[in-house]
Structures are given as structure tokens and as C-alpha cells.
Amino acid sequence: MIKITLPDGSVKEFEKNSTPMDVAKSISHGLVRNVISASFNSETVETVTPLTTDGNLTLYTWNDEQGKKAFWHSTSHIMAQALEELYPGVKLTIGPAIDNGFYYDVDLGEHNISEKDFPKIEGKMLEIARGKHDYKMRAVSKVEALDFYKKQNNPFKVELIENLEDGTITFCDHDTFTDLCRGGHIPNTGIVKAVKLLSVAGAYWRGDENKQQLTRVYGISFPKQKDLKAYLELLEEAKKRDHRKLGKELELFTFSQKVGQGLPLWLPKGAALRERLENFLKKAQKKAGYEQVVSPHIGQKELYVTSGHYAKYGEDSFQPIHTPKEDEEFLLKPMNCPHHCEIYNARPWSYKELPKRYAEFGTVYRYEQSGELHGLTRVRGFTQDDAHIFCTPDQLDEEFKNVIDLVLYVFGSLGFENFTAQVSLRDPEDPDKYIGSDENWEKAESAIINAAKEKGLNYVIETGEAAFYGPKLDFMVKDALGRSWQLGTIQVDYNLPERFDLNYKGSDDKLHRPVMIHRAPFGSMERFVAILLEHTAGNFPLWLMPEQAIILSISEKYEKYAEKVLNLLENNEIRALVDNRNETIGKKIREAEMNKIPFMLIVGENEEKDDTISVRKHGEGDIGAITINEFTDLINTEINRTLKTF
Ligand SMILES: [Zn+2]
Ligand SMILES: [Zn+2]
Q1: Contact present, 77 and 84 (Cβ < 8 Å)
Q2: What is the mean pLDDT of residues 293-320?
Q3: Is position 388 annotated as part of the catalytic site?
Q4: Which of 153, 189, 287, 629 has its CA 20 to 30 A from that of 57?
Q5: Strand runs (DSSP E) across 108-229, as ranges?
Q6: What's the CA-to-centroid distance between 611 and ligand 2, angstroms?
Q7: Helices marked H in 455-543 — which ranges?
Q8: Which of 388, 426, 527, 535 is the catalytic position?
Q9: What is the mean pLDDT of residues 601-615?
Q10: Could you tell me the CA-to-CA distances from 239 to 118, 198, 525 in Å, in that order?
Q11: What would the pLDDT profile of 111-138 be if each residue is shown by its tens digit?
Q12: Is the pLDDT of residue 24 over 90?
């Protein structure tokens, strides 16, 4: 007998060679129907893998991330089989699951695939799926494996196998198809009920542009037809909310080939929006005891050699700038931290003066390949809402809680209600990998966990995921379309204080190293505005909107009254504008709706006579005629609903 421990901690005995599916059977019928993959002692196994030792078993369904991954990876095998049948001689390379679906990189030889071939491939895939073929793993010797792919004339799989150790190589078979694979499949192809190929793109073997060009086919699959339908609707909605499209329509930002790829240009409305976000955070940071600092956009190469950034990123970064006469070398700033370390180093500190919290909206530059650039989410120059806290190890606990408060305040004020946190700790089995004393690591890790607990965060702990220089806390935010974004990392750092020889005088009169915390609730202004645009579809919280109201005159006769209303609104710090054009009121309303202006204030004969405005709310309709004072109250109530004081 073997002892199987389930995630809830319960332990059950099973006969040796029982499978995860047998375990599911002992739990419930529902689970037998829904279990699609499993992990045993943290390793991926098949639902039919015989278990031979005691251990921890987790069963996954479609509702688990790991279940989806197994589902999509298994579908990539089905697609590979369909491609082999439809395009004889096609050479397979790799076919992993990704966040949303899967892809397979193939060498099509003389064949070509375009979107118009998708229905044919999807049809073939569904035909294979309906055969309910079991996925069967088998071990093969290295010789056998090489022989199989040499016969197929497939140099890619041969290269992969050559790098594997004999005795660890497995094939997966289903129907007439065989693939080199480590495993992690659903029980059989019949579970796949809906497939959709999404796109086809070029890719290089091993991602190396000097190597052979391959074709990458992306797809996604579902256990129910209705799940596919919902997904396609989501894609449609995501297209509408694409920040590149909305940014243009709302005149927030632009790019110019002349200025250069990946270098956003903020238009007046976008710049004003950014400024509001900056002021919002600056105000909260001031209350939280941060001090603003300013540092230059370039720094001497030596600075980044000291910080270690040069060794890590130098080669793959913008190359040094040389001065014409003195032969000095400068780098575009890739990070603000080294500069802030030198600001800390400008004078000696006593423990009584710590923590120091230096904040800067610092613009940094990082080289990204042109193919990787994407709107505002992947750029070459961006501004971080950066801050570095220098504190004693004993202050970490308090500082961490304060940073979490600030991050939660930011999320709350901007309408991100759905988020989880991940605590990344070091791998206790491998202590040599990390810098800093055991004592300090223990202090920092318990500080993070305590803070997460005390703040009531919904968090998971990932052991072994910490950076070599310190543990961290990441927030994963879900947007309105259910997509996850990483925002608001809080990182503890023992490395830079060491490299920059930072210190403070302790109560024992001796010098000690401070701990450093890096944090940026927005991440970068560019990426944050992009996420916010897609989350809100351009309907930002009212306090942030470029224009909060537009005054629409029924005809030119009411121009004077419209101007008077504008003045009154401006006196109440409401951002508004007037549309006095000689157009119909219907057209003016339609355009204001398109521009997502939250309130439309219609003024005509009655309004002028009664000293009122007729209010229409974006996306909702008429509210009726009210006075300016009533309108100001309405706006303030709405703003105070989201924007609390910190
Ligand atoms: Zn596989
Ligand atoms: Zn930093």
C-alpha cells in the first residue's frame, strides 16, 4: 500500500500502482468526470500514471491553471497530427501551452499556411478529437528516439533529443501520432470539444534569428462549445479596448517613426492625465513620509558596473555614449536605484534618522528588439513611479505594511478591485544562491508574510521564486476582461546596499548596512495608462478624466449662457469645455458619447431662463435639469466614491 496526501492535508491509503484517476474515483463521481491532469510530489504526471511511492497528489480540472495548460498542450499534439496529415513532410519542433492556448512551431517545407486554411485544419483536429484516443506515455532509449526522428528527416527533434540524457526520454502516442514529450496530458482527445486557430506567424528555431525560420501556428481549445463562444466575444471586446486604438481616439499619445520606435509621445490630454496620476501618488507619498528626489537621465558606466546592471544588461542594452573630448562613457539610465543609492550616500546617517524614503518619477531607457515593442506596454523609454526605502532590518515589518497600504490605495482609487498577491521566498535547500545573512532573510520573509496576513491579502507563497538579492511581494490585478496584469511589485534588496557600501550608525555606535526596498505601485506610467485604458475602455474614474463635462448649446443663441456655465464649472475646479458649433444637438451628443465625456450639459432657452443645465450621463442617458450647484455636488459625490484621501 502507498499513502497519498491530498491538498487538504487528508491522507488515504491506496494499493501500489494506483493512478491519480483511481484516487479521483475514491473521492467523487464528479471529480472522475472532470479531472484532466495531476501533479505528484510537485511533478506533472498523467491521470493514468501508476503511483509507486507515498507522496502528495493534486488533481486538476479545467478550472485550474495547470488543468488548462495540460488541456492546451494536449491539443497542440492534435494540431500537430492534423498538420502532418494535411501537409505531408511537415517537420515538428516544439508545441507548448501558453497563457491563452498553445502553439506549435513547424517547418512546413514547400507548404504554406494562411488564415484561410484554418477551417480545414480545425475540421481535421475535431475529427481526430472525436476519436477519443488515449494519450499514452512510453519511455524510449536515446538511440530509439534519435532513430525515429532521423527516419523522419527531422533535425529539430534530433537536436532536442541529443541534449537529453538517455533514460529520461519519453514519447507520447495518441491515435497514429507520436511526439517527443515530457508529459502532462489530459486522459483522451475526446475531451477537446471546441478548437480555434488564432493566428499564424514567423518564428525562429530556438528563438535565434540566425537559425532557421519556422511557422508558428497559434490556437486555443475548450471542453465546451459555449466556452469558445465566450472566449471569442472576449477577444472582440479586447480589440475594442486595445489601448493603442483608444489612445489614438482619445488623443492621449502617439508614436513617430522620426522620433523612433518604442518612444511614446504624450499629447496634451495624455500628458494632463499623467500629471493627475503623478500628483495623486505624490500627495499620498508625501503623507506616507516620502521625499521627492531628481536624478539625471544618464549615468557614468562605472555607476552601473558598481550596481551590477552593466554585467547583467550591458550587452543587450543601449550602448554607451562617449563624450567628444574627455573620453567619458555614459549609459542611458536603465534603473533609478543606483542614483538613489548615491543620494543616500551623500551624507552619513544615524539609525534615528531612518527610514529614508526617496521617490522619483524617473524616466529610464531599455533596449527592446523592434519586434517586441507593443504600444505603451513594451517601450524603449518609460517613466517609473519609483521609490527606494532605506531602513534598518527591524523597520522592514512596518515599512512593508505601509507600502502595501499605498498600493491598495492606488488600486482602490483606480477601480482595480480584483487582485491577488504572490510572496516569493528563497529556496531553503539552496542557500548559497542568495546574498545576505540567514538572519536577515528570515526577518524579511516573515515581515512580508506578516504584512500580507495583517492587510488581509489573498496571497500565495512561492518558495524558490525570490531574486538572489531579496524576497518580494507581487500583486496580480485582474482587469474587466479577466486578464491578469502584474502591478505593484515590492522588492527587498540586500545586494545594492552592499555594492554601494551604504551604511548607518546603529545604537551601538557601529556602522550597519541598511536594507533597501524597491517599490512602484503603477510600475511605469506608460504601462499603467495602457492597462487602465483597457480595464476601463477609456471610461476612467471621474477624478482622472481629461474632460469631466461638455456644455452643448442648442444653438448659437445660447453661446453666452454656455460660457457663463463654463466659468462657474471652472471656478468649482470641474474640467469642462463648450461645444458651440453650428451643429444639431443630436450630433453634438453623439460625438461627446464617442469621446467618452462623462457628463453632457445641454443649454437652451429653458435652461437659460431657469439658470439650470440639462444633464445627460455618458452611457446612461438623461438625468434632467438641475442647477450648477446641484451638478457640482453630483460630481463631487461621484469623485469621493472612488477617490478617498490617503
Ligand atoms: Zn505532450
Ligand atoms: Zn529600484
Answers
A1: no
A2: 90
A3: yes
A4: 189
A5: 136-139, 170-174, 177-180, 194-204, 213-222
A6: 54
A7: 495-499, 525-536
A8: 388
A9: 95
A10: 20, 14, 22
A11: 999 999 999 999 999 999 999 999 999 9
A12: yes
Residue 439, pLDDT > 90, answer: no
546 C-alpha to ligand 2 centroid (Å):
30
Q: Would you report the helix, strand and coil content of the chain in percent, each value rounded to 5?
A: 40, 25, 35
Q: Provide the 8-state DSSP code for 338.
A: H
The C-alpha cell that represents 137 in the structure block: 506515455
Confidence of residue 309 (pLDDT cuts 50, 70, 90): confident
Q: Among all chains, which residue has been given the C-alpha cell 475646479?
A: 573
CA of 490 to the centre of ligand 2 (A): 10
Count of CB atoms situated within 10 Å of the CB of 67: 20
Q: Which CA distances in Å does 280 have to 409, 493, 567?
A: 11, 27, 25
Residue 409: all three cell numbers together: 490605495
How far, rounded to the nearest angstrom, does the alpha carbon of residue 570 sit from its chain's CA centroid? 38
CA distances from 87 to 40, 121, 124, 633 (A): 38, 10, 12, 67
CA 458 distance to own-chain centroid = 18
- Residue 435 pLDDT more than 90? no
Are 599 and 635 in contact by the 8 Å Cβ rule? The answer is: yes
Share of the chain above pLDDT 90, in %: 87
User: How sure is the predictor about 562, in pLDDT bands with cuts at 50, 70 and 90?
Assistant: very high
H-assigned helices in 242-336? 243-249, 268-287, 301-307, 309-313
Q: Is 337 a catalytic residue?
A: yes
Question: Tens of pLDDT along 243-294?
Answer: 999 999 999 999 999 999 999 999 999 999 999 999 999 999 999 999 999 9
Residue 88 one-letter amino acid: P
Helices assigned H by DSSP within 288-383? 301-307, 309-313, 337-344
Residue 185 contacts by C-beta under 8 Å, 6 or more apart in sequence? 37, 46, 70, 73, 74, 77, 135, 137, 172
Could you identify the residue written with the cell 517613426? 257
Through-space distance between the first and last CA atoms of the chain, rounded to whole angstroms: 59
Neighbours of 177 (CB within 10 A): 18
Q: Is 339 a catalytic residue?
A: no
Instruction: Report whether pLDDT(312) > 90.
Output: no
Cα 189 to ligand 2 centre (Å): 48
Q: Is-contact 440 447, C-beta < 8 A?
A: no
What is the identity of the amino acid at 69?
Answer: K
Q: How many CB atoms lie within 10 A of CB 213?
A: 10
Q: How many angstroms separate the CA atoms of 492 and 446, rounded?
A: 12
